C-alpha cells in the first residue's frame, strides 16, 4: 500500500477513493463532515471497520467546526451532525458504535474547547484501536490457515475495508507473510465488484497468488475439492453469532457446509451488536437498482428491468465454524464465547 | 418475439445476434458453415438446443457447397466440415447429437444430389423436432408450477436458447400463459449476463413480472422464503441424471436442497448423453479470462489478474427433484426413468 487508505491530517481526512480503483489511485481530502458522510454513502470508503473509523473522524470534523462556546448548544449541534452521519448506511455496526463512543467522549468534556480536543483524540484512538484489532485478528486467524491452503474469500476485507491491516484478508496476508504457500480464490462480488476491483488490487500489491472468480464459481471449486476454507468479514454480528455480511456470504456458508469446509468470520469486537439477540433483527440496506443494471456505467439489462439489490445477507451462527476477533477465536455457542471475551 | 431467433432461408441461416441484446435486435445472415461455427464459438447463438439446431444447419450449408459429385469424396469432405463444427464448443450434448444425425442422413444418401436434399431436410427436421420438444416440455413442466409461485431461473433457456419455445423459461412462460400468477427471479448469470441481457429481454416481451438479481442473491431470497421452486435448463445430462449446465447451477441446487425447495431441470432428450454414466465425465468448457475481467468492454479488475472461467458446472442427480423432458417427467433413479422414456 503506497499510502494509507484513511489518513487524518488534523483538519481534514484523506481517503483513497475506492470507487476509482483499480483504474486509478485517487485520494480525496474531505474537510467537512458532510463530505465524509457522502463518501460513505457513495462507497468511496467502505468496509465496516473503515466506515466506523471515518464516521468517528466525521464527528470530530463536524465538532471542530461548531462555533458556539455554549456546551449544551454544542452538544445539540453535535447530535444533529451525528444523525447525518448515522443516516449514511444502516447495516455496519461499527458506524453506530464509533459515533456512540464519540458522543460519550464529547459529553464527558467540561467545555467546548476540551470537547473539541476530546473528539479529535477519541477519533484517533478509535482508528488506532481498530487498526490494532485487525493486526491481532490477522495474527490469531493465521493460525487457522494451513500451509498450502486454498482460501476462498468474498468482497474486500483488507486495508481498504478496515483502515488497518484487514480482517479476513488480513488473516490471509498474515498467513502468507508467515511463509505459508497460500492460494486465494477471490469472488468478484457483484454488484459492485469489490473483490475484482479491490481485493485483486490488494492481493496483487501483496504479491499473493490469487484467482479471481465470479460469485457463482465458488460451488464449482468446492465440489472439485479446491477450497480448504472460506474466510469472510462481517458488517454486524448478533449475540448468537448470526452474521450480516456482504450479499453472497450466506450462499458461501451453505456451500461450505455442504462440502464440509470450515467457514470463518473475521471481525473486530466492535462489529458485535450486543443489543441484538439474533441476526433477523439486523437492518439490511437496499441499494440503488442501477448498481445491478449498470456496470461501470454500461447498461447490462433492458430499460425498465425491476431489480433487487440488498447489500447484505445474514449467515446463521450454525453455519459459522469460528469467529476470529482481536480478543480470541470463539465458537458455538457464540453468546457464551462472547461473554468470555469481555 | 418479432422474428424467429433462428430461421432457415434455403441458402443461409438467419440468426438473432445474442451478443448484441438487449441493446440491439440485430440479425445476421450466415451463408457459410464456417460463419455458423464462428457464431456458435462467439455465443452469437447459444443454448444447448439452439446450438444443436444451428450445427445441423451448418452441416447442411457445408454439404450444399461441396462441389464433388463423387459420393465417397463428398462424405469425406462432409466429415471435415463436421469436425470444424464440433470443435466449436465441447459441453452441450445437442451439438454432437445433431451432427451425428446429419452424418447418418448423409451416409444414407445414394448420390450427392440426394445427400444434399437429405441434409437440408434432416436439419429442418431436427429444428422442427427440437422446437416441438420444447413446446411439450413447457406443457408438461407447467404442471409443476403452482399458481402464485415465485420461480427462480438461471441463465437463458427461452426461445433464444432453443430455437423453439424454451426449456426452463418455456415452462415459466407456459405456466404464466395458463393464467397462473407467476413471479420470476432471474439471475443475471455472470460472466456473460445471459440472465440480465436475454432472459430479462424475453420476460419483458412476454409481459411476465420478474426481478433481476445478481447470482449470489439466490440464497438471500431462498432464506426469506421467497422462492417456491428453481428451474433450469441443461447442456448435457449423464445416464444417472448428473447435469452439466451453466456455471452457477450447482450452487442453486445446493441452496435449494438446504431450503427444501424443488429443483427442476428442463431439457429435451437430445441433451442426454447415453454414452456417459456419470457427470464427472462431461467435458467442461473453459472460456476466455476476458469474459470475467471485462464487462461489455470495460475492465473491472487490475491488469494481469489471473482468472478462472469454466462455463458449466455439474449438478449431481441427487440434488435434482425431477427432469422435465418432452417424453415425460422423470425422477430418481434417473437411469431407470430414462429407459422407460424410450
Give the helices and strands, then pairings.
Two copies of one chain form a homodimer.
Chain A: E1 6-8, E2 13-16, E3 27-30, H1 33-41, H2 48-64, H3 71-86, H4 93-107, H5 112-142, E4 150-153, H6 159-162, H7 168-177, E5 183-187, H8 194-206, E6 210-213, H9 218-223, E7 229-232, E8 236-237, E9 243-246, H10 249-259, E10 263-266, H11 290-293, E11 294-295, E12 298-299, E13 312-315, E14 322-325, E15 328-330, H12 334-341
Parallel strand pairs in A: 4-5, 4-7, 5-6, 7-10, 10-14
Antiparallel strand pairs in A: 1-2, 2-3, 8-9, 9-13, 11-12, 14-15
Helix pairs in contact in A: 1-2, 1-3, 2-3, 2-4, 2-5, 3-4, 4-5, 5-7
Count of helices of chain A? 12
User: Which architecture of the largest domain in chain A would the CATH scheme give at its second level?
Assistant: 3-Layer(aba) Sandwich
Query: Structural class of the secondary elements of chain A?
Result: alpha/beta
Q: Element order, helices and strands of chain A? A: EEEHHHHHEHHEHEHEEEHEHEEEEEH
Q: Main interface pair? A: A-B, 54 and 54 residues
Give the strand content of chain A.
15-25%
Mean pLDDT of chain A: 96
CATH class membership of the largest domain in chain A: Alpha Beta
Number of strands of chain A: 15
Q: How many discrete structural domains of chain A? A: 2
Give the CA-CA distance, first to last residue of chain A: 33 Å
Output the strand order for the largest sheet of chain A: 6-5-4-7-10-14-15
Oligomeric state of the chains in view: homodimer
Large-scale geometry of chain A = globular
CATH structural fold name of the largest domain in chain A? Rossmann fold
